[in-house]
Automatic annotation (TrEMBL):
InterPro entries: Intradiol_dOase_C, Intradiol_dOase_core, Intradiol_RC_Dioxygenase, Protocat_dOase_a. GO terms for molecular function: ferric iron binding; protocatechuate 3,4-dioxygenase activity. This is Protocatechuate 3,4-dioxygenase alpha chain. Gene3D superfamilies: Aromatic compound dioxygenase. PROSITE patterns: INTRADIOL_DIOXYGENAS. NCBIfam families: protocat_alph. CDD domains: 3_4-PCD_alpha. Its EC number is 1.13.11.3. Keywords: Dioxygenase, Oxidoreductase. It comes from the Bacteria. The gene is pcaG. Residues 40-68 form the Intradiol ring-cleavage dioxygenases domain. Belongs to the intradiol ring-cleavage dioxygenase family.
Length: 189
């Protein structure tokens, strides 16, 4: 007979066993990587606007040609040696995180239409039963963002929570509010 087990949260020990996979600079092992280099900086905050000092942020993205390094992406697009498209960083005491990467190319959606360039993001933290998933879109892609089928599912007044802002010098600012005022849109996956 099977018995139900108690539910578990992803924290507060989520860093144990995972820190070996941390990668803040997705470009470091890919010297041949071309494309627009970017820095993504932000903060993760809780429902009260307080920083989440013990969270973890993961990103997954396509390369500048629009191809994922994954067996399911068998399209005839180039892969770049050393570029996995995966990054993971713990949040700092002030809830901040930072990635160095390249702007991804467009990828096809489920219906085959191109999606706007975006980065998939997961956030893990104490108290969450499972991670939350969202996307970060680019501020210089207004036309592509307007045509993106996934972004179109988000109420217009909340889409801004998914679009980074240009902080200058190749840096994008994108904060994650887990609840409360300006809560980031999360996807049910």
């Amino acid at each position: 007979m099977l018995y139900a087990t108690a539910s578990q949260t992803v924290g507060p020990y989520l860093h144990i066993g995972l820190s070996g996979l941390n990668c803040a600079d997705l470009t470091a092992s890919a010297p041949e990587l071309a494309g627009q280099r970017i820095v993504i900086e932000g903060r993760v905050t809780d429902a009260d606007g307080e920083p989440v000092p013990d969270g973890m942020v993961e990103i997954w993205q396509a390369n500048p040609a629009g191809r994922y390094r994954h067996p399911d992406d068998a399209r005839e697009l180039p892969l770049v040696p050393g570029f996995t498209g995966f990054g993971r960083v713990p949040t700092e005491a002030d809830g901040s995180f930072r990635f160095v990467t390249v702007k991804p190319g467009t990828v096809p959606g489920p219906d085959g239409r191109p999606q706007a360039p975006h980065i998939m993001v997961s956030v893990f933290m104490r108290g969450l039963v499972k991670h939350v998933a969202t996307r970060m879109y680019f501020p210089d892609e207004a036309a592509a963002n307007a045509a993106d089928a996934v972004l179109a599912l988000v109420p217009a007044e909340r889409r801004g929570t998914l679009i980074a802002s240009d902080a200058g010098n190749g840096t994008l600012r994108w904060d994650v509010a887990l609840q409360g005022q300006g809560e980031t849109v999360f996807f049910d996956i």
